Amino acid sequence: MEIHTLIGVDTKDILKVFNESFSDYFIPFQLTEEQLDSKMLADKVNLGVSVGVFEDERLIAFILHGFDEINGEKIVYNGGTGVIPEKRGFGLTKQMYNFILPVLKEKGINKLFLEVITKNIQAITSYKKSGYKIERELYCYKGEIVISNVNNNLEIRELQEYDWSLMQSFWDITPTWQMSIN
Ligand SMILES: CC(C)(COP(=O)(O)OP(=O)(O)OC[C@H]1O[C@@H](n2cnc3c(N)ncnc32)[C@H](O)[C@@H]1OP(=O)(O)O)[C@@H](O)C(=O)NCCC(=O)NCCS
């Protein structure tokens, strides 16, 4: 078994281990190569700080890490962790972190974030073992916004450009990584 970064690893191999790892996930979650590409782009995934476990050259576990600099601070975001079902319970997530944390430290990265569904106990157990601590709990909503009370004095127009510092002044909370400005 070998652990190294995902530099030079083909997206097709990442896709395979991703879909195998999420094959028994409680929410149906299987990606096409195109969807994985756009997820990696949106999460700012950097293969140089992402990790894989290889057994006989087959990728059996992974962590996809995004990287960004926010307010001058270097931050890594875990955009996906997976271990194929038959290799779970051996602490591979912790082993991947044991490998990558010194690499991140070397690059001056001391802060890592992730978002996990509260009922994903296996993942939370594993993340805690790797040193993560719960910082906040988020409510997630989905649906369609229906505007029922229209004020005729207001005009609603599509934005032509995004003045992020103005829009940030409306924020009550910092959005999740996947809903961030990027
Ligand atoms: C989350 C995940 C990556 C952790 O895998 P792992 O590194 O093998 O996990 P660990 O060895 O740290 O074990 C964590 C917990 O999983 C559970 N577990 C142990 N063996 C297991 C097995 N064979 N099958 C399933 N779960 C098992 C146990 O509760 C264990 O905790 P314990 O060691 O205190 O008993 C893996 O479960 C997975 O790929 N899940 C599906 C994808 C997913 O949910 N990703 C995270 C999205 S945020």
Outline:
This protein has 182 residues and is α+β, with helices and mostly antiparallel strands.
Q: What can you tell me about this protein's structure?
A:
The protein is α+β, with helices and mostly antiparallel strands. It has one domain (2-179): Gcn5-related N-acetyltransferase (GNAT) (Aminopeptidase). Helix content is 27%, strand content 20%. Coenzyme A binds next to strand 4, helix 3 and helix 4. Coenzyme A binds at residues 21-22, 25, 81-83, 88-94, 116, 120, 122-123, 125-126, 129.
What would the principal axes of the Cα set say about the shape?
globular
Q: Can you tell me the CATH superfamily?
A: Gcn5-related N-acetyltransferase (GNAT)
Number of strands: 5
Measure the end-to-end span: 36 Å
Bound molecules: coenzyme A
Instruction: Tell me the β content.
Output: 15-25%
Spatial strand arrangement across the major sheet: 1-2-3-4-5
CATH topology term: Aminopeptidase
Largest sheet: 5 strands, mixed
Alpha carbon gyration radius: 19 Å
Helices and strands, in order, run as: EHHEEEHEHH
User: Which blocks of ≥5 consecutive residues have pLDDT under 50?
Assistant: none
**CATH-level-2 architecture:** 3-Layer(aba) Sandwich
| Category by helix and strand content | alpha+beta
| H/I helix tally | 5
Number of domains: 1
CATH C-level category: Alpha Beta
Share of helical residues: 25-40%
